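Section 3.1: Structural characterization of target chains.
Under the original work plan, the team committed to producing a structural model for every single-chain target entering the pipeline before any wet-lab resources were allocated. The record below documents one such target. The sequence was received from the expression subgroup and is listed exactly as submitted; it comprises 68 residues.
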Amino acid sequence: MTGTVYTETVVHLAPEAFASQAPYQIVIVTLDGGGRVTGRILGERVAIDDRVTLAETREGVPYFGKIE
């Protein structure tokens, strides 16, 4: 699953369940096949219009990585 970053933000003050993971980046990705999905970023930070690919899924949450 690949796509383009539609929008992004960095969470600095996370809910208690995710506080140990902050700061982390959340994105909305416009998928190549159509539609949009919300997920998190693994590794290098991304910007709007960057290309990303699905790296893994944890507990139903998609984690994307930047395509170089």
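The chain has a mean pLDDT of 96.
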